[in-house]
Amino acid sequence: MKHWRRWLTLLLVLLNLVFAAWVRGYLQPWGWQPNDPREPLRLQQQLRPEALQLMPPDPRQ
User: Fold this and answer.
1) Which of 22, 37, 41, 46 has its CA 20 to 30 A from that of 13?
2) Nearest-angstrom CA–CA distance, 20 and 32
3) DSSP symbols for 27-47
C-alpha cells in the first residue's frame, strides 16, 4: 500500500527536474524552451531615446 507514495515522490522529483531543465533552456535543442521575456525589437524601434529626461519627484506630494 505504501508503494504508491514512493512512485508519487519519484514522479514529482522527475517532473521537477524536467521543469528545471526547461526553464534553464537545456531542452532548447529539441524545440522546448520558455518564451523569451526580452523585447529587443521594441528597443530598436524607439524614436529618439536620448530625448527622454528623468525628473525628480515632486516634493509637495
Assistant:
1) 37
2) 12
3) TGGGT--PPP---HHHHHT-S
